[in-house]
Amino acid sequence: MTASTLHVPTAGPGAGDPVLEIENLSVDYGYTDDATHVLRDVSLTLHRGEVLGLAGESGCGKSTLAYAAMRLLPPPGLITSGSVHFTDRDGTRTDVLRQSDAELRASRWQDMSVVFQGAMNSLNPVFRIGRQIADGILAHRPRTTRKEALEQAAGLLEMVGINADRARDYPHQLSGGMRQRVMIAMALALDPQVLIMDEPTTALDVVMQRQIVEEIADLRERLGFSVVFITHDVSLLIEIADRIAIMYAGDVVEDARAQDVYRRPRHPYSSALLHSFPPLRGERRELTGIPGAPPDMQRMPPGCPFAPRCAHTTDVCREVRPALGPTALADRGEQEAARRVACHLHDAAAGRGGGSLPAGLAR
Amino acid sequence: MRFAVRRTIFYLITAWAAVTINFLIPRLMPGDPVTALMGRMQGRIDSNAEQSIRVLFGLDTESSVWQQYVDYWGLLLRGDLGLSFTFFPTPVADIVQQALPWTVGLVGIATIIAFTLGTLVGTAIGWRRGTWADSLLPITTFFSAVPYFWLGLIAITVFSVTLGWFPSSGSYDRGLVPTWSWEFVGSVIYYGFLPALTVVLSSVAGWILGMRNMMVTVSSEDYVTVAHAKGLPERAVTVGYAARNAILPQVSSFALSLGFVVGGTLIMEMVFSYQGIGYTLFQAVNTQDYPLMQGCFLVITLAVLGANIIADFVYAALDPRTRQEG
């Protein structure tokens, strides 16, 4: 993706108050003792007006994290501990995981909405798209008439660049890109505060990807919602996201501003990840890739999950799981102090000005 | 609209083909009805009478197959299916007309009940899978796995012979005059209950299983998750998103089974001595009554065709993807 002209307004961390706070969230797949621990004590905060990128390899738990935060995990997914707090515009803070079914149903789509991975299958094939957008409006705004809801649906379609006449089309009459736009229009129907986008551009060609991403950036500027953008396309994230959280094997391993992650990665995995694809701009560098494969989630090693593939592994890495904490270079200034990384190298180098850090991680 | 015209033309051609095959098949069969009749009577008919029977049956004229075909169509369009050999000289059309309402009424209603019940139960089990309701499946499957005649005989043994709740055979109280009186209709329902019950019992498992499996499949579709995420009421998700899509394959099998209602209940009608079209067909085959057989086959063929037409249009109404617009 050549996103050289893509303009995304920057709203740095701290610019807004937290709107979605995920704390120590753990998710298992399976109900028995040998259940797979897919997320282990993951914490993540989304601020108002921010685009938070969630990146990582397939199966690292990005989507699981988003689905769990919305309580949409398909069985046998089970949230075992943690909390997810949503802060409304008026400042009321609710724990999403402790809402009753009725409260949850009432808040869904108004507070948080979601654009799913498969645009092809996200629309009900037997209903007209206008009706599908309208039924979400009708479910939450009981005083709206059917006609008004359909008019709103047509307006939403116009907003994402689809002719309002197409509201009477069925999903099979639309192209993949148009369906994805319909999904975005649908997700924005109730003016949500948080929009979760789960690989919204995966099934599309690069031209359409770019259009969709621009559309999202533009809409966010106008409507002011926060976005959790899930993808494994790190280069795309660097363009669109304000902040990036890198996930590995069910953990957030690094959480920092997008440009910081890109230019000054602090975790060995982030650094390796950035060296596995060619940069869009800037100096040329050698692509290295990451040796080995992600760990089997059913048989996780006791220490750092990245230890078997890491170039800087020490004894402590194989025994103790590192926690997300400040970097060893936290004394470099406010920006650096706001960064979080889960790595023993930083714990060991802390207080020594990062002197013992490998050069690649101390830029 | 173009869809309707195209389908209509398609079905007219199919109907023509079906009628033509129905005309040709008896003519391809070895032997002829007169010889068969003589053989069955085993010399009780004087061999000199053979020529008279031929004249009587209209088999004396040496007309070409083409001429016979044209005549056949002419008679058919006037509703004349010829005279039955067995019930000579009753016209085949009359016999079929008498038998058909019984079969269509009894088996048709039983099929509709089985379909409705099975689909509703299947929806419920499929939506809440993994609950106690799943144990219903093996029970209903048992009833459909049991051979039908055995189920019918057991039902007669238990409910009419031992308990004496229902009559074991027939379609109404012979002491009554067939009219649209409450008494007569009540009698028909009373006599039809046991056969209908066995038909429903033996077929409901298929509907439950089909609907349950489709519900399980559709429930994991992305659009159902989207419907949940939209915060739609549970009922709207179950009915409008899951069941609405899961029912599509059910509808086509239902239409097909409606087609087989007319011809596929031979065993039920034999077990319960019910005067339907299956029983009539059975008699016709036993006595090599060609005109009657042909008449029955024609009615069955047309019924299957008719059911297919209904299926096509209902399916088009339910699933926009099958409409070939523009």
UniProtKB/TrEMBL annotation, chain A:
Q: Name one GO molecular function term.
A: ATP binding
Location in the cell:
Cell membrane
Membrane topology classification = Peripheral membrane protein
Per UniProt, the keywords (alphabetical) are: ATP-binding, Cell membrane, Membrane, Nucleotide-binding, Transport
The record's SUPFAM superfamilies line, in alphabetical order, gives: P-loop containing nucleoside triphosphate hydrolases
Q: Which domain of life is it from?
A: Bacteria
Q: Is Transmembrane there in the keyword field?
A: no
Checking CDD domains in the record gives: ABC_NikE_OppD_transporters (cd03257)
Q: Does the keyword Nucleotide-binding apply?
A: yes
Q: Ranges for the ABC transporter domain?
A: 20-274
* NCBIfam families xrefs: oligo_HPY
Spell out the family assignment given in the record's similarity comment.
Belongs to the ABC transporter superfamily.
Protein name per UniProt: Peptide/nickel transport system ATP-binding protein
From TrEMBL, chain B:
Q: Where are the transmembrane segments?
A: 9-29, 99-127, 148-168, 188-209, 254-277, 297-318
Q: Which residues form a coiled coil?
A: none
Q: Which UniProt keywords apply?
A: Membrane, Transmembrane, Transmembrane helix, Transport
| A matching Pfam family | BPD_transp_1
Q: Where in the cell is it found?
A: Cell membrane; Membrane
| Record membrane topology | Multi-pass membrane protein
Q: Which residues form the ABC transmembrane type-1 domain?
A: 100-311
- Name the InterPro entries on file: MetI-like, MetI-like_sf
* Sequence similarity: Belongs to the binding-protein-dependent transport system permease family.
Which protein, by its recorded name, is this? Peptide/nickel transport system permease protein
Tell me what organism the protein belongs to. Isoptericola halotolerans
